[in-house]
């Protein structure tokens, strides 16, 4: 895998823009595709905060005008937007294309098999990316980056162990300044991130508080710890015991400080909230195992009320 090849990033949110900018600066030809009706951006990505850089060569096109093939197709959209997108992805690549999925919560491939979705990329070429990185989109083409010392882009085959093409992709991302790594335990990584996704995200959308405020305020901290404990029990029932404790997770959240979660950003912008993958799907798994999850159910119930 060499620089200069074309890369498509589908989704102009915070993480999509971060990857687009970093890969462009490393010499890749990056195109960001956004849905019709998104606010137009002519070119470029600019970062501020703990990273300050300009990537003027990034170009933007409407999603309907995106044409492959691409060496990498990076899908950085909300889980509820994937249904109409998945059948279109295989047409954007060829036999060597890597399809990377950055989704929160229980992902689309969790219980799918090849061929179940016509036009979807083969699982053997699909890469799950679990992200631990505080990046906020402040305007079209602009992001604010915060470093915490635990920033990670964990990449794994959705149906197996790392292979040579995956390791080459991870090396290319690392060369671009992205803190990428490979893993053979992607389901465990998904459950680990769900400790945050299923608690901090919904609680921030309900209260309007930042990550640091939720983690440092005693009563909301109690809610976080109880909800994270439910995720830990679910992961163990699912065969993926976690090494991270709720207490350690909340302490790490305190380091993020004034960052707003993606769900809070969505609520403030009037966008649809990602409750299905972050809460409804784990609750469905809990029902299958007969595991009580009262905190997760309460958070989902609170978010079911339409925003005024």
TrEMBL record:
Claim: Ribonucleoprotein is one of the keywords in the record: no
EC main group: oxidoreductase
Segments forming domain Ketopantoate reductase N-terminal: 7-149
Gene Ontology MF terms: 2-dehydropantoate 2-reductase activity
Pathway recorded for this protein: Cofactor biosynthesis; (R)-pantothenate biosynthesis; (R)-pantoate from 3-methyl-2-oxobutanoate: step 2/2
Positions of the Ketopantoate reductase C-terminal domain: 186-304
One BP term from GO: pantothenate biosynthetic process
Reaction equation(s) it catalyzes: (R)-pantoate + NADP(+) = 2-dehydropantoate + NADPH + H(+)
GO cellular component, one term: cytoplasm
SUPFAM superfamilies named among the record's database cross-references: 6-phosphogluconate dehydrogenase C-terminal domain-like (SSF48179), NAD(P)-binding Rossmann-fold domains (SSF51735)
Keywords: NADP, Oxidoreductase, Pantothenate biosynthesis
InterPro entries: 6-PGluconate_DH-like_C_sf (IPR008927), 6PGD_dom2 (IPR013328), ApbA (IPR003710), KPA_reductase (IPR013752), KPR-Related (IPR051402), KPR_N (IPR013332), NAD(P)-bd_dom_sf (IPR036291)
Taxonomic superkingdom: Bacteria
EC number per UniProt: 1.1.1.169
Family: Belongs to the ketopantoate reductase family.
NCBIfam families, A to Z: apbA_panE (TIGR00745)
Job description of the protein: Catalyzes the NADPH-dependent reduction of ketopantoate into pantoic acid.
UniProt name for this protein: 2-dehydropantoate 2-reductase
Source organism (scientific name): Azotobacter beijerinckii
């Amino acid at each position: 895998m060499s620089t200069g090849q074309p890369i498509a990033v589908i989704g102009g949110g915070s993480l999509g823009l971060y990857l687009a900018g970093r890969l462009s600066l490393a010499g890749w030809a990056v195109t960001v595709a956004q849905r019709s009706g998104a606010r137009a951006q002519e070119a470029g990505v600019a970062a501020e905060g703990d990273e300050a850089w300009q990537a003027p060569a990034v170009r933007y096109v409407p999603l309907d005008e995106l044409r492959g093939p691409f060496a990498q197709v990076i899908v950085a959209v909300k889980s509820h937007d994937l249904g109409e997108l998945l059948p279109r992805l295989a047409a954007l690549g060829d036999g060597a294309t890597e399809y990377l999925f950055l989704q929160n919560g229980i992902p689309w491939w969790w219980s799918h098999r090849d061929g179940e979705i016509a036009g979807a990329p083969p699982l053997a070429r699909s890469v799950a990316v679990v992200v631990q990185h505080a990046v906020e989109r402040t305007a079209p083409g602009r992001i604010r980056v915060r470093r915490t010392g635990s920033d990670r882009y964990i990449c794994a085959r959705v149906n197996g162990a790392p292979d040579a093409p995956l390791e080459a992709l991870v090396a290319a991302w690392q060369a671009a300044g992205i803190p990428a790594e490979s893993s053979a335990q992607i389901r465990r990584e998904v459950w680990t991130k769900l400790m945050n996704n299923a608690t901090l995200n919904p609680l921030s959308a309900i209260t309007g508080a930042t990550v640091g405020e939720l983690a440092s305020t005693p009563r909301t901290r109690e809610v976080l710890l109880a909800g994270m404990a439910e995720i830990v029990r679910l992961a163990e029932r699912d065969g993926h015991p976690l090494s991270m404790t709720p207490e350690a997770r909340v302490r790490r959240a305190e380091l993020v400080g004034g960052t707003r979660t993606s769900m809070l950003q969505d609520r403030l912008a009037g966008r649809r909230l990602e409750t299905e993958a972050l809460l409804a799907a784990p609750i469905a798994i809990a029902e299958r195992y007969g595991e009580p999850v009262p905190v997760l159910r309460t958070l989902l119930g609170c978010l079911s009320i339409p925003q005024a």
